[in-house]
Amino acid sequence: MCAPHFLRCLAACMQGHHLFPFFKMAQDFIGLASDCQYWLQKLSAWYQASTLETQKDICLHLPQFQEFLRQMYEALQEMDCNTVMERFPTIGQLLAKTCSNPFILAYDESQKFLIWCLCCLINKEPQNSEDSKLNSWIQGLLSHILSAFTFDIKEINLFSQCLGYEPVDYYPALLKNMVLSLVSKLRESHLHGFHTQRRMAPERVASLSQVCVPLVTLPDFEPLVEAMLTYHGCEPQEVLCPAFFEAVNEAFLLKKISLPTPAVVSLWLRHLPSLEKAMLHLFAKLIPSERNCLRRIECFIKDSLLPQAACHPAIFRLVDEMFRCALLETDGAPEVLAVTQVFTRCFVEALEKENKQLRFAFKTYFPYASPSLATVLLRHPEDTPQGCRLQLLQRISRMLQEVVEDQPCGSCGAPFESWFLFIHFGGWADMAAEQLLRSETEAPVAALLWLLAFYYRPLDSSQRRAQAMAEVEAVLSRLQLLMLPRSTPVSAEELQAATGKGSSADPTQSACRQLIRHLLLNFLLWAPGGHTIAREAISLMACTDEMTYEIISFLDQTLYRWDHLRSEAPGSAKLARELLQELRAQV
């Protein structure tokens, strides 16, 4: 009895009759039906092989029983499921009783023929609930065969005592050889393509995928799951069953199995519902529980393997479309914006790591955007010298204006597409707001204000955007006055008055309220007197839970960006961390 031999044969079973060129095809169905009744009676007498006499009788008759199973397999593989049940109505009882006999299962030849027969009974295209129940029942028997030696120690002892094997040594080697044999056969099939003598038949691969559904979470089966996912035959249609993809995806999302990135990419490319479920799983995990903690969001996103998989343009386009839908459905919710931006950063890192020289042009990922604009936005701000950042921001503003402002009145397609591209790289907008309040810079105010007005309100008309820019510029001018040298320090009340004075409405109610608040927070971090009044000013601003969360989000996003920028502002970073810690303790 040779376990490796058994497992090589099991792998080859999916090739059908090519496995047995030395056997003559059994034709006498009447004789086989009669044999079924004989062996069914024998199996009833051998129930559980519980006595020494039954064990001896099994050993005496086992070669004939194995030959019967072999002949039965040759007959079954030439029939469909319905014909099998008509000609051999007791076949199910016989196979089930065989599966429950540990002494028979202990022999690899018995397991081999038994598994082959069960595979022939699987209905490849179940038409009704009865077919589905039969498939589930067969999968249960197959699972029992492969797991019996793991879980039923009492029955194993009956076998190991007679043959001198320890179950802990026997079963793992058996299973390992079986998996390695199947993996080898799948890879050989993949390499030889149309070479029919060297590849698995598509229907056998389909059967194997159905057999594997209840087994995908077993650690020993991970190599086989990976080989199945990366196997590509020459068939025009998918041969692996949807239930296999669904089971693997579910196990992967719940961390019950570990798969390499190529296998996960293949899974999501071949079964789009699994990709959609992976994205929904990520959103459900991040949005409610990881609000305002971009570092943890980044860890979850990287751990999901979605950024790495998105290096394939087809997956990126689908994932990006889901982000687009989420933004539209939530009216641009800050949480969705943040996740989109962190995902983009992770994606770009994965892209650069995987492709030192990109296999795909960047426009493949953003086909509706201006290629030159996408190229500029792709540049890491941290890789841009401090003295060149303002110039680059001006260029981004000019390029966006050329696309957006030339659109006819009422058109929202191009502005939205440009905004959707821009928000992927939202760090540029944050940098623009920061540059307006940094005392050591002389910023191109008009260009940066336009960039910010577009970022916060992308679908405004040119006239409304100009009005918003004028309102924000008035507030900015008053904040810049407070930054000038003076004999008395700035107070929190003065700062609050500066953000509302002369405005068409209170800044908490105006169309630009969020932008104005963010300018105020930048003032606290960058103005000479901002640090001393930061806590008092924020306590005045954080009058509601919603406002507190917004401030927390701003500080978290700022620190996240500074960490990536390797910012040279230790004083501002220290203050931001302290404020963030204090505010988080309040909510």
Write the layout of secondary structure elements.
Layout: H1 3-12, H2 29-45, H3 52-76, H4 81-87, H5 91-99, H6 102-105, H7 108-121, H8 129-151, H9 153-163, H10 167-192, H11 202-212, H12 222-230, H13 242-253, H14 261-270, H15 272-286, H16 294-303, H17 306-309, H18 313-329, H19 334-354, H20 371-378, H21 389-404, H22 413-424, H23 427-437, H24 445-456, H25 462-482, H26 492-500, H27 513-526, H28 530-541, H29 545-565, H30 570-586
The total beta strand count reads 0
Overall average residue pLDDT: 79
SS-derived structural category: mainly alpha
Order of helices and strands: HHHHHHHHHHHHHHHHHHHHHHHHHHHHHH
Beta-strand fraction estimate? under 5%
Give the domain tally: 3
The first-to-last residue Cα distance is 67 Å
Q: Biggest sheet: strands, sense, closure?
A: none
Helix content: 55-70%
Number of helices: 30
**Uncertain ranges:** 1-27, 149-156, 158-165, 192-197, 501-511
Coarse shape:
elongated
Using the CA coordinates, give the radius of gyration.
34 Å
Structure at a glance:
The chain contains 30 helices and no strands.
What would the keywords be for this entry?
587 residues; mainly alpha; elongated
Can you walk me through this structure?
- With 587 residues, the chain is an all-alpha fold.
- It folds into three domains: 3-220, no CATH class; 262-364, no CATH class; 371-586, no CATH class.
- 70% of the residues lie in helices and 0% in strands.
- It contains 30 helices and no strands.
- Helix 25 runs antiparallel to helix 26 (492-500).
- The longest helix is centred in the N-terminal third of the chain and has 26 residues, at 167-192.
